[in-house]
Amino acid sequence: MRPNLATVEQDAGTAERSFLGVTKSARGFAWRERLPEHQKQIATAISQRHGLPDLIGRVLAARGVGLDAVPTFLDPTLKALMPDPSTLRDMDRAAARLADAVQAKQNVAIFGDYDVDGACSSALVKRFLEFHDTPARIYIPDRLFEGYGPNVAAIEGLVNEGAKLIVTVDCGTTSYEPLAAARKLGADVVVIDHHQADERLPDVTALVNPNRQDDISGQGMLCAAGVVFLVLVATTRELRRRGHYSGAREPDLLALLDMVALATVADVVPLVGLNRAYVKKGLAVMRARENVGLTALSDAAGLSVAPTPYHLGFILGPRINAGGRIGNAALGATLLSSSDPTEAQRIAETLHRLNKERKDIETAVLEEAMAIADRQVTDNPDRAILVVGSDAWHKGVVGLVASRLVERFRRPACVIAWDATAMGTGSLRSVPGIDLGAAVRAAVTAGHLAKGGGHAMAAGLTVSRDSLALLEAFLQSHLGAAAQGVGDIAHLDIDASLVASGATSDLMDLIERVSPFGQGNAEARFALPAHRVKFGKIIADAHVRVILEGGDGSRVDGVAFRAVGQPLGDLLLSAGGMPLHVAGHLRKDTWGGRERIEMQIEDAADPRRQ
Q: Could you tell me which residues are beta bridge partners of residue 377?
């Protein structure tokens, strides 16, 4: 069934692709058609050549999918998209050293980060080594007391416990002193990472990182778990070459893709190329519920439907992160590497409880941070970056709060929690076009930070209170040119409009073909033009649930998350039966055992005020 598409309005007076004439929505966005005029012929060609509905042709063309790339995009496979692992710098060295450890049954220590990517990466390596009866233990640093990445005391402790090989995952690229300590004590080090790297690298046996400056593999979009999977493929190949599996079973690496998919979505890396195959195939593995830890976590969260990227990013991911944020940082990795259902259930329930506590803490910190940021923007509307901090804030939620500030103010944000020693732990989040990772590395080089690093869109730092003023001035100057005008670029891209009756299972099946959605492959967004709010109420003191009715009398349920007290929530609750343009994503909802289609509302606009 083909959805009922409404006519898209074009603004002839500007270069903008105005949609429904919305120039300023409740959230301050101008709506525009996602598909540029010059790509509409490509959309038609995609539909005709590949026998696809017009809507799918539009969605694919708007995401830059070429005519010849359509089959691989719609059916991403590892066979078609996975490179030869040896194309990554130092891959063969890493595989050889891991193979040595397996054959010699050496003690291996896995040093991971405390987020989802780190937990998944750690569990992947541990499961691989355990399959080969190789002794391995995971060490995750305490977020509050040790900070991010390897530290000398922890590394020395692991070597003194007997580790002959230390494998760092999702960290280590800039850990010069701690990794030098390992080598000094006689342990080898293999680094598997994906964070941005300086020209200088630590002295280790192997450093596999597609984002090191001398790596030309083109796999820089992978998260750490994605890189780890390639390392395991290469190690298995090396062991096979050595005859290790003669008469013995090889590891089923495909069965590990559920954790690779979880890390890929949770770390918000682009869902393009190999990452699409990781997530597509990983979700299929997850549906089989063979990972004891993930099954227990899904049950604790009340997830009773087939998992989607949404569930990975907003249901499972936050619960694994909760351990690192406000509890035991090792809980997530322990859960994911566990084969004991009783232990897994206990940890999953603990993480579920910690996630509830994290939400309460985040709410309190966010309220204070928003007030500070409001004053900063009022005092200087051209600020390149927001920098807020407090002695009373919990280190574990600063990254989440930074993300909320970016959503609200549409500019980079740095949120710092100060400790009793006047040292601050900060998390930074960015907007497209502004590279925070490079800015933080430059601040380290300039001497304004004790430690720092990250990606273009997210970074972390450690700073002394005495250096804060210099750091803030440095960041404002360093980001100024890139940030110029970013706050004014406020567009919401719409794929198509439809009436409530067009929100059908058939439409959902069409959209599913373009999934998985995420960073780099935006979820299809629709607008319901001139729909009336027939019913609206506040749920859980934070969200707004409504019933939207089209001019033909058809209806669809809608929910706007975290909209209470915000302009979007106010508009929906005060519409008084007047027609509104409403934009958002469509989802299948199975609440109460009944399947229905609902719109997750992102924005709304009053047609009379455009």
A: none
